[in-house]
Amino acid sequence: MAGLLEAKTALVLGVANRWSLAYAIAQAFRREGARLALTYQGERQKATVEELGAELGAELVLGCDVTQESELEGLAAALKEALPQLDCVVHSIAFANREDLSRPFVETSRSGYLLAQEVSSYSLVAVARTVAPLMRQGGSILTLTYLGATRVVPNYNVMGVAKAALEAAVRYLASDLGPSNIRVNAISAGPVKTASARGVKDFIKVLDAVAERAPLRRNTDPAEVADTAVFLASDLGRGVTGNIIFVDAGFQVMGL
Ligand code: NAD
Questions:
Q1: Which phi-psi region, left, alpha or beta, contains residue 229 (left: φ > 0; alpha: ψ -120 to 50)?
Q2: Which domains are seen in the chain, by residue range?
Q3: Active-site residue among 23, 40, 113, 156?
Q4: Helices (H), the chain
Q5: Distance from Cα 198 to the centre of ligand 1, integer Å
Q6: Which tens digits make up the pLDDT trace of 207-256?
Q7: Does 113 qualify as catalytic in the annotation?
Q8: What is the pTM of this model?
Q9: Which residues sit with their C-beta closer than 6 Å to ligand 1?
Q10: Is 40 a catalytic residue?
């Protein structure tokens, strides 16, 4: 059987290392035959992401801090040159100050709140605006969210509020871009031990609670998130837009 993403080109933003959900997604996209472009946040990640990009056969590996309009413009220019037809875009980016993920939410500072919103929510809007003109045959934009958007998860705090905004942005973007046949969806992943997740105080307790109470009685494997990303990016997902799809071993259905 041909790969599900054969003849498609994908841009994946948010690979920091081998544990990143974006890396699992890039691996699955490659397995399914996609041509790949990766971005990294800054010089500190450059060597690692270039190495991972080489392993994956990525055709473009570029720095892009999503808070910098000029770097988004640079990304668009580089893509136009190297991979002018884009079909799939994965936004796997979030950030909040560590202190805002460890103290009561009511103590969140104005600057910490705005930072989390800018990096974790507004950036999807900025990325969508940047890539949409390159998705001339339509395609799929995908972001990553978490249950803390709609339920209180201890210490997730300001990131939960940012994810709520992100999920609303998914719906508004789906409405704006649907006429261009660009679909916009989010995967709500169960907790996975990554660099970002480790910033949330007592994250291990969340993993333990999920393994004990989720219908499947285990945590989420990044490969499961990646396979759902393949579905959404492929033609199999052609009727799905504006959705939040849970890949969390079923945890979100439980009341207690
Ligand atoms: P990660 O730390 O591997 O990835 C986060 C990425 O965001 C990094 O690559 C980082 O460089 C990037 N980033 C942060 N600020 C940026 C900026 N200004 N410009 C460009 N990139 C920037 O962790 P992850 O867990 O793979 O996170 C990926 C996404 O998945 C995030 O949106 C996260 O909230 C979401 N998510 C994670 C979990 C989990 O438990 N790990 C669960 C649900 C959703």
A1: alpha
A2: 9-248 (3.40.50.720)
A3: 156
A4: 21-31, 43-56, 69-82, 110-117, 123-131, 157-177, 203-213, 222-233
A5: 11
A6: 999 999 999 999 999 999 999 999 999 999 999 999 999 999 999 999 98
A7: no
A8: 0.98
A9: 14-16, 19-22, 41, 65-67, 92-95, 119, 144-146, 189, 191-192, 194-197
A10: no
